[in-house]
């Protein structure tokens, strides 16, 4: 419940603090005194968009703070999801700077506006003057019946419906893919057959290029290798023989100088290395042959390779092979699409069958609530001064949707004419207000909302009807905190705490203030609501009776 509301620098409020009781709180005051400004400020901490134009002092910032007492179990999931600290007291603060920047905090931790709006859904139901338009909304009507019926299968059904939608989406996408793939299939098969026929191995074109270089320069390579080998081993004075002789000469004098053995060793190493090189040159020479037929084969193969490179816009054999793999997957995929579509079609049918079954169970649970709901609402309508009004609930089966298979519509007859029509089309503003109160009073018993706020729920009523609205609000306040802005003395008389909103002129500025009335002040204000600014003795006595 809302324990305290603190407002600083908002609209025509300079600084205001209000402590609310846990039961029926009534707010009264003259028209224009600022009653709805209180709710405007409250809506800021419930997630409404900020307007920098609401600042009372344009040089300072606006701060609105609400202190709530909550059951931890009620908001635990939200706090865990958003990694916020959960305490017994919940403090929500909203700040609006003169520049228009808005910040929100939950227990001093910054949160965004969407998080604030989500949290407020666990704390407060704010009913304002034009919220009666919701009565004609199909979603609102369904939510009312579901709040009472609490269909056991609804969450399972909802998850199943999301799965069904995903399968439908996947099936449609796969159909589109198949249609597109079928258009490209022949061309892709042609490209794939061409690559399969070419049958290139990894890095083949690059290796063929190296081989062609060798084959076309075979004669030059052999001449060079023959010359090198001849000069190393077979010349009149072979290099190896000369080097061996020089090494022997150095070895002969190695005992005469300490550095000579090392030089001799190095020359021997050079001799052995050149001898090994000569052998390798001879071996390579034996492997090199000019082969005109092979040159022709390699040229043809490379021509094919480079033609395919150009056709597919690649530079290497491996890139070409990657394209071949992709084409293989596409062609195979088209052939497998029909099987996948058949499997998805079967899955859709199974999910649809399960949804129909669950939807029927949900419909049955909703239908069980219709008669008791109609009876209770119609009883309450009579209580609030509409004895001839009737509410009727139609549940018709339609297409599957996220909440079942039902179209729920509230129909209304104000005059026992048995001519029911959609409630939003035939009910007047006052009738809608009272009907909404009756419905919310029933729903509140099934929904764990600790605080309900009504802004002029008494629009268009007076007298006994207003008193009965007060009775309903008083009854609701046994289990919920109620905050109600009203102009009706009959409702004000039912309050557990009565707050008076008034304008205060200080330092040439008009501000809105609020004070909690004492018993005698309550009687005086209710008497004024009954008979004017100077209440009669009869009005005062009537006010005392109302308070008692």
Automatic annotation (TrEMBL):
RecF/RecN/SMC N-terminal domain residues: 1-504
Swiss-Prot/TrEMBL keywords: ATP-binding, Coiled coil, DNA damage, DNA repair, Nucleotide-binding
GO cellular component: bacterial nucleoid
Family: Belongs to the RecN family.
Annotated Gene3D superfamilies: P-loop containing nucleotide triphosphate hydrolases
Gene it is expressed from: recN
Any GO BP: SOS response
Protein name in UniProt: DNA repair protein RecN
The keyword Coiled coil is annotated on this UniProt entry: yes
Lineage top rank: taxon: Bacteria
Summary of the function given for this chain in its UniProt record: May be involved in recombinational repair of damaged DNA.
Keyword Transit peptide listed: no
Lineage: Bacteria, Pseudomonadati, Bacteroidota, Chitinophagia, Chitinophagales
Coiled-coil parts of chain: 157-184
GO molecular function: ATP binding
